[in-house]
Design a protein that fits this description.
The chain is of the alpha/beta class. 41% of the residues lie in helices and 20% in strands. The chain has seven helices and nine strands. The strands form two sheets. The protein has a five-stranded parallel β-sheet with strand order 2-7-1-8-9, with helices on both faces. A hairpin with a 3-residue loop joins strand 5 and strand 6 (84-89).
Length: 189
């Protein structure tokens, strides 16, 4: 990667509806652009098959999450899909930026709004599905949620899609590779 331009050290926030592929795009970026620091969120939900604590999320108890909120350790946090809480630990983000590393937060809409209030200089990128039908296909295809959870997530996704105009730029996730390439080019600009 020596022939590529350096990535400026500006926080980039990636958000979009459930099942759009935010995690997959972030994983592609992690694998292909190790110079980019990617935040690991804390969550109170249980791990999905294959998820590793400290890599995909920091899986914490409700009591630990409450402590993190009380101690001001979270840059943002929210209840997502009316079930679990997710949040971004503040310290690692500030440390990565202080070290001059480009930083990416892969978070939900509620979290992006909180970060905009606290760090308006960040770049806000909305990851969009190619179509509603494709978003539904991806969510159902994951096979990780019950029917009730899928319906709740689709209800949330409708509201999240309506917030696209709040973002600085939209990247359409036709493929993980193409969306990732577009995201890294935005981070370089």
């Amino acid at each position: 990667m020596a022939d590529q331009a350096p990535v400026p050290t500006r926080l980039t926030v990636l958000a979009g509806p459930t099942a759009v592929g935010k995690g997959s795009v972030a994983a592609w970026l992690r694998d292909t652009h190790p110079e980019v620091w990617i935040s690991v969120s804390a969550t109170t939900r249980a791990p999905r098959p294959g998820e590793v604590d400290g890599v995909h999320y920091h899986f914490v108890s409700d009591a630990e999450f409450d402590r993190m909120i009380a101690d001001g350790e979270l840059l943002e946090w929210a209840v997502v899909h009316r079930t679990a809480r997710y949040g971004t630990p503040r310290g690692p983000v500030l440390e990565a930026l202080a070290q001059g590393r480009p930083a990416l937060l892969e978070i939900d809409l509620q979290g992006a709004r909180q970060v905009r209030e606290r760090m308006p200089e960040a770049r806000f990128v909305f990851l969009s599905p190619p179509s509603w039908d494709e978003l539904v296909r991806r969510l159902v295809g994951r096979g990780t949620e019950t029917e009730a959870e899928r319906e709740r997530r689709l209800e949330t996704a409708r509201a999240e899609l309506a917030a696209e105009a709040e973002f600085d730029v939209t990247v359409v996730n036709h493929t993980i590779h193409d969306a990732g390439e577009e995201l890294i080019e935005l981070m370089r600009s």
